[in-house]
Amino acid sequence: DAAAERLRSDVHDAECYVRLSGVPKAGADEFAVVHAAISNHELVDPWLQVMLRHRMPLFGVFSVPLLTPSLFPKLFAPRKDVLFVASHQGGKLRQTFLSDGRVRSARLSQAPACGEDAYPQYVIDEAMRSRRYLERTRMLDSLQVLEVCLIADAATAQRIEELAAGNEAVEFSFLDADAAGDKLLGHKLAAA
To answer: What are phi and psi of 36, to 5 degrees?
Structure first.
């Protein structure tokens, strides 16, 4: 069907599981996606079944790789090829490689917690690992600098810059979480 094909085209060579529900009022040719997951839908199926059984409204279930093409341009200046890195729940690091605004690769790896001393070096190591993979799969030229954009606090950003100094294979850009929230919401977040 059209929604599944659209989802597959946005995520290079991914297996998709899509369940459609009804036609939204906004347009007869668009469907409301109740459930879309890449490869591992088993993680969210039990939650969705409860929601569906109780007829709870559901706007959508999203993942970082699915949202990155639309969110990235709101956070950082456009780039042809870029690796977007974000901390993920459960002490993980999510890396999404975009080429011309399209997801070409995504990985999730176990990582030290953001505040740990080992985190900055781990981010650099993972960026280099992703770079090697992108070169092997010919998604990135070996002479090209890999631009890595990361949501990080000032101290983490500074430490990554110090550790990556002299590394000409990657170039880091940073945005702190509050600034990212401001950009996505279109206004300054109120101080808590």
So the answer is: -140, 130
